Amino acid sequence: MKKILYLSTITVFVAFVTLISLTGCKDSDKTNKDKMQNMKGMKNRGHDDDHTHKGQDKMTNHMKHMDDVRDWLKEELGDDYDKPIKEATGAQIAFGKSIYDKTCFTCHGTTGKGDGMAAAALNPKPADFTDPEHSSYYSDSGRLYIIKNGIKDSPMVGWGSSLSEKEILAVYAYVKSLRAKTTAVQTDAKGMYVCPMHPNETGNKGDVCPKCGMTMVMNKKMIKKDHNADGHTH
Predict the structure, then answer these.
(1) CB burial class (10 A; 0-12, 13-18, 19+) of residue 17?
(2) CB of 142 closer than 8 Å to CB of 78
(3) pLDDT per residue rounded down to tens, the chain (234 residues)
(4) Which candidate in 41, 63, 121, 216 could, as Cys together with 193 as Cys, close a disulfide (CB 3.0–4.6 Å)?
(5) Helix crossing, 140-149 with 165-188: angle to 10°?
(6) Where are the domains of the chain?
(7) Are 170 and 147 in contact (CB under 8 A)?
(8) Count of alpha carbons within 13 Å of 19, Cβ hemisphere only?
(9) Are the C-beta atoms of residues 123 and 205 closer than 8 Å to each other?
(10) How do the residues of the chain divide into helix, strand and coil, expressed in percent and rounded to 5?
């Protein structure tokens, strides 16, 4: 009788230990899975944060470069930095294009968007002359000075020893015309302007909304916003 009672006690104890072990393993597995999930989430958040910070750092560095170049130009040119340049003629722009197509397209691209054959290997990237904000960041005299003397600590070289004053002025006339063409296209583009009260109603500059008669305003969604996404030479 004692032997039977003893065996029964052992059996109950073993069953109890087994139950605790199984429950503990199950809870342990769940805990480990939760930990792994949390670690994965932290890793992903860390990656996203790192990506965001790198993008912000890149933007900050790019803008600092632009500011530094502008400060340098103002120091070099003094009062002449804001000196206006005579409006270009059609013949001058055409002459400038012929020079641009021989000397500038490799870096700045055939259309001036900064996407030439050599652009990918350059840091900072070549300027996009079709971007109104970018191309007007420096004064006309400042841009002219850059073409002639280049930009220190950048791939942009000066052409003062290769081109005459007339040729340099013509090149800039053509470069500036690319900005003007882009601005005109944006201004006249259907949908560039919207009604403040009825955003589905779109039109051109000066149009009024057919529903309420309000003058249409610039559609911010269509304004180019990726101008400083990558660093580039100015």
Answers:
(1) exposed
(2) no
(3) 444 444 444 444 444 444 444 444 444 454 555 544 554 454 454 545 555 555 556 666 777 888 899 999 999 999 999 999 999 999 999 999 999 999 999 999 999 988 999 999 998 888 888 887 777 889 999 999 999 999 988 899 999 999 999 999 999 999 998 886 655 555 455 567 787 777 777 877 777 777 777 777 877 665 544 444 444 555
(4) 216
(5) 130
(6) 79-187
(7) no
(8) 6
(9) no
(10) 60, 5, 35
Question: What distance in Å separates the CA atoms of residue 199 and residue 211, rounded to the nearest whole number?
Answer: 11
The residues, any chain, with a CB within 8 Å of residue 28's CB and separated by 6 or more, are none
Give ∠ CA 80-81-84 in degrees, rounded to 5.
Answer: 75
CATH ID of 79-187, from 2.70.180.10, 1.10.760.10, 3.30.70.270, 3.30.470.10? 1.10.760.10
Tell me if 178 sits within 8 A of 112, measured CB to CB: yes
Residue with token string 């191309």: 135
Helix H or strand E encompassing 155? none
What type of residue is 71?
D
Q: Please write down the long-range contacts of 16-23, taking CB distance under 8 Å and 24 or more positions apart.
A: none
Q: How many Å apart are CA 103 and CA 150, to the nearest integer?
A: 14
Pairing of strands 217-218, 193-194: antiparallel
